[in-house]
TrEMBL record:
Source organism, top-level taxon: Bacteria
Annotated Mvd1 C-terminal domain residues: 179-313
Family from the record: Belongs to the diphosphomevalonate decarboxylase family.
NCBIfam families from the UniProt entry: mevDPdecarb
MF terms in GO: diphosphomevalonate decarboxylase activity
Ranges where the Diphosphomevalonate decarboxylase-like N-terminal domain occurs: 8-163
EC number(s) per entry: 4.1.1.33
Alphabetized UniProt keyword annotations: ATP-binding, Lipid biosynthesis, Lipid metabolism, Lyase, Nucleotide-binding
Full protein name: diphosphomevalonate decarboxylase
EC class name: lyase
Length: 330
């Protein structure tokens, strides 16, 4: 029986991945930098067998449509080729996210699938090779192979584009990220589609690529110096620049909602009151607030005046991918 199981945690980019140099290989235009979190993870088990006649994908116990299975099957085709294994697979995936989070993440999902395949087909991939493989499923998944701060080096080929952990000497343990969950509906424009439209049509896109290099250097220097404010300033500025590119796309779009702006205003007010905290957003209206662990309660209290308790969730730095024993491998 060829089966394997892995757990991967989601990551949030402080310096964003936004645009592909090569959509087929998922090579990005710029390096990105993330923090892996403990709050949300995906656990995936995969079973390959010569008896299966197609790939079947269950998410949280529900069999997914052929369309929803396509991304998984395309990834499995790569794995099958690499392992020289012709078998179809059954995949059971569970997203561990707080109720109403709307945070089902392709980063943790594809990283866990890559890990499960590595185990099932005894690929014996190094963490670097696993990161490369996960990248082919979803770009941001390559960063979820590692814990703490992680940089995705864009590279110039399949073999040279992968994530590497950044050693912050444990400083990340002093940090936290408070999520403001604004909408749990599926997004109108997926990140894949949004970044492609931006690359192809946004007047601001070339500037984004340049700015991202500078922001990355500022963020890395701040991590090495354990300088929270410098890191927060670089992160917030980078996120705003990413979202600015969408306004200059054709047709223009934005992931922001009125509630996103309310959350941003609260963050700015908190800063004026002497609590250092900074926001970032991804391809959706949720706002993520980077802060120091010691200020989590004060930030939650300030948000509670405008958002329901279940919309406010604190997460902390988390580990890299974990392989889980299965009934068969035990
Ligand atoms: C990031 N995002 O760095 C950026 C910021 C969204 C906004 O990575 O097409 O799901 O599968 O490579 O990885 C989301 O993009 O896209 C993402 P694909 P992915 O976290």
């Amino acid at each position: 029986m060829l089966n394997g199981k892995a757990r991967a945690y989601t990551n949030i980019a402080l310096i964003k991945y936004w645009g592909k140099e090569d959509p087929e290989l998922i090579l990005p235009k710029n390096n990105s930098l993330s923090l892996t979190l403990d709050g949300f993870f995906t656990e995936t088990e995969v079973l390959f067998s010569k008896n299966f006649t197609q790939d079947v994908f269950y998410l949280d116990g529900m069999e997914q449509s052929r369309n929803a299975t396509k991304k998984v099957s395309t990834f499995l085709d790569l794995v099958r080729k690499r392992a020289n294994c012709p078998f179809f697979a059954v995949i059971h995936s569970h997203n561990h996210v707080p109720t109403a989070a709307g945070l089902a993440s392709s980063a943790s999902g594809l990283a866990a699938l890559a890990g499960a395949c590595n185990q099932a087909l005894a690929l014996n991939l190094s963490p670097k090779e696993l990161s490369q493989l996960a990248r082919r499923g979803s770009g941001s998944a390559c960063r979820s192979i590692f814990g703490g701060f992680v940089e995705w080096e864009r590279g110039h080929s399949d073999a040279t584009s992968y994530a590497v952990p950044i050693d912050a000497q444990g400083w990340e343990k002093e940090l936290a990220m408070v999520f403001v969950l604004i909408n749990d509906q599926p997004k109108d424009i997926s990140s894949r589609e949004g970044m492609q439209r931006t690359v192809e049509t946004s007047a601001f896109y070339p500037q984004w690529v340049e700015e991202a290099q500078t922001d990355l250097q500022l963020a890395k220097a701040a991590i090495q110096a354990h300088d929270f404010q410098k890191l927060g300033i670089a992160m917030e500025a980078n996120g705003l620049k990413m979202h600015a590119t969408t306004l200059a796309a054709t047709p223009p779009f934005t992931y922001w909602s009125p509630d996103s702006l309310r959350a941003m205003t609260i963050v700015r007010t908190l800063r004026q009151e002497g609590i250092p905290c900074y926001f970032t957003m991804d391809a959706g209206p949720n706002v993520k607030i980077l802060c120091q662990k010691k200020n989590v309660q004060a930030i939650q209290a300030a948000l509670a005046a405008s958002f329901a308790e279940k919309q406010i969730i604190a997460a902390y730095p988390g580990p890299g991918i974990q392989f889980v024993e299965t009934e068969v491998t035990k």
